[in-house]
Structure formats: C-alpha cells, structure tokens
Amino acid sequence: MITITPSAAKQIRQSAKQSRMEGMPLRVAATRSGDGTIQYAMGFDDTSREQDTTFKSENVDVVIAPTSMPILNGTTIDFVELEEGQWEFIFMNPNDPNYKPGE
Question: What's the mean pLDDT in 6-26?
C-alpha cells in the first residue's frame, strides 16, 4: 500500500476543495522508464475500475491501477518545503533505485 503523511493529506484536501473535487478519490500512478527511473502522477478521479486497488490513508481515498501497484507498493507520499517557500509532493519509494532512506 501507499502511506500519505498528515502534511500531504492536508494539502490534498485543500487542493480538492480549491478545485471543487471534494469527495473524489486521489488516483496515484507510476511508470518505470527504460533507465529504471520512476515517473509519478496524481490527480482526482471519480472513475473506478474493477481491477483498481482502493484504500484510505490519513482519511484520503486512494485509487491505484494494477499496472502501478507493484511500482508504488511501500511508497510514502509527503508534502515538504524543499527550499524556503517552495513546497512539493515527494515520493519516498523503496522500489525506486534512486531512493535513499534518510535523505
């Protein structure tokens, strides 16, 4: 599964409210490039498919397609200030060859 931190959950709920998409689940997707790096995508999606994995983390409904699940399993999504005033979602994914825990 995926873990969403409290900081990320707060930002996801704010984004849903601003976009008038409250109540829609967050779809998280990932694809692996030829060089092994992982590309991530997130967005609100009210279309569920039978094969999707659905669950809640920090009271956020999350949907993941079966093609993304093996890549995303064990990932933590956080919302952090990388530089002063610059906030971004980050994916801490043990399946990513570039991920180094603790950095």
Answer: 94
